[in-house]
Amino acid sequence: MATTPAPTAAKSPAPPPRSVLRDPAFLRLWAGTTASGLGTWALPFVLGLAVLHRDLGAAGLGLVLAARTAGFLAAVTVGGVLADRHSRRAVVLWSALAAAAAAPLLAAGLGRSLALMTFAAALAGAGQGACRPAFQALTAETVEPGQRQQANAAMTMAVRGSTLAGPTLTALLAAFLDVRTLLLGIGVLWLVASLAPGKGGAVAAATEETAKAAADGTAKATSQSVTGPSPRAGFRAEFLEGIREARRHPWFLAGLAALVAVIALGYSATSVALPLISRDRYDTEWVLAAAMTAYTVGALGGALVIARLRPRSQGWAAFAGLGAYGVAPLSLMLPVHPAVVVAAYAVAGIGIELFNVPWFTATQREVAPDKLARVSSLDFLVSYGLAPIGLALIAPAIDHFGVTPVLAVCAAACFLVPAAAALVPTARHFARTAPTEARTD
């Protein structure tokens, strides 16, 4: 007798991926990154309050901030090597603790010892610089590849949100607390940054298991070798290895070149020209304040959009967003209504995050995991290192050539350099081949 086969159960659709915002490991990392961003932003603002209270002179403020920048630039490359050589979590811990230790030293030196404050500012900058590439690499260890764009968007939203709300919050606290107490509060923020992140979760565990298997295989091979294991390379050799890894990715080098143009020319020019034009053309400080606020609000909006947007040509879309910064210097060239300037800054803010989030995500995806921190340190070295140079050169150029010609050159650079970078091989997708999500979107 023939029997009727039992019907097969229909396959249930795969559950949607869990939001990264519900992952405790990521939330701990997000809290640490947010605390470090607040601490980084708050220090120059609080030191500015010290100038207003006559606890620090203008020349002293410049020296202290210069020392912080020097400490950052000196430590960011070292931090990248250390984060690839040792545990990323440990590098975050000790670098953030160094920045936390600098806060009471700054408070102790305020109004008493400029030398102590300069040393403490350099220590704070070194802690900030060393933790940046470690945080980037730790994000790749903590978050699954498919969720990293959402995670990076959440990170940048935290930074932009603190920039937007920070001045108001600090001003309110300054009404009740003195500058020394505010400096100690910055130390508490860095203490949170040092302790909040975890070890990296499941992604880190898988990475460690793979590394252990590779190490076991290497140990077995070297045990049969007469020469024995080779010694660890020095700092310089390991940093150069990171540069060689960066050179393997033409889209990364093209992105750095575009960042140089936008930061050293566009951002620096608008930072110098906007206060001048707000005063001379519009005769009000309102345009300055509104434009900077619009830039931050636009960046928040851009991060919200790119958290879910997956363009087919991710790299081209990102370079278009970066090039959009050119509308900011362009709006300052023309005798337009102040609302046009504010709108241009909002567009520039949106565009910068349409670049930043895919850029960080692609770096975490494409760069070899054991070299990720060193490659990220190159990114931060360019981003933070060239801004002071651009600011130092733009002001004399405006005095010599006038504000309009300088803004015209800078606007053209913001438009043309990212466009040229988009033509570099592998730039279309920020990858050698189109990622799966780009092909199927």
Explain what you see.
This protein has 441 residues and is mainly alpha-helical. Helices cover 77% and strands 0% of the residues. It is built from 16 helices and no strands. The chain has helices at 24-52, 58-85, 88-109, 114-142, 148-174, 179-195, 201-223, 235-247, 250-280, 286-306, 314-323, 327-333, 338-366, 372-401, 403-421, 436-440. Helix 1 (24-52) packs parallel to helix 5. The model is unreliable at 8-14 and 204-230 (pLDDT under 50).
Write the SSE topology:
Layout: H1 24-52, H2 58-85, H3 88-109, H4 114-142, H5 148-174, H6 179-195, H7 201-223, H8 235-247, H9 250-280, H10 286-306, H11 314-323, H12 327-333, H13 338-366, H14 372-401, H15 403-421, H16 436-440
Brief write-up:
This protein has 441 residues and is mainly α. It has helices spanning 24-52, 58-85, 88-109, 114-142, 148-174, 179-195, 201-223, 235-247, 250-280, 286-306, 314-323, 327-333, 338-366, 372-401, 403-421, 436-440. α3 runs antiparallel to α4 (114-142) and α4 (114-142) packs across α14.
- Average pLDDT over all residues: 83
Overall strand count: 0
* Topology as a string of helices (H) and strands (E): HHHHHHHHHHHHHHHH
Structural class: mainly alpha
The major β-sheet equals: none
Gyration radius from CA atoms, angstroms: 24 Å
**Percent of sequence in beta strands:** under 5%
> Any idea what the shape is?
globular
Question: Please, how many helices?
Answer: 16
Straight-line N-to-C gap: 51 Å
Q: What ranges have pLDDT less than 50 throughout 5 or more consecutive residues? A: 8-14, 204-230
Q: How much helix, percentage-wise, in residues?
A: over 70%
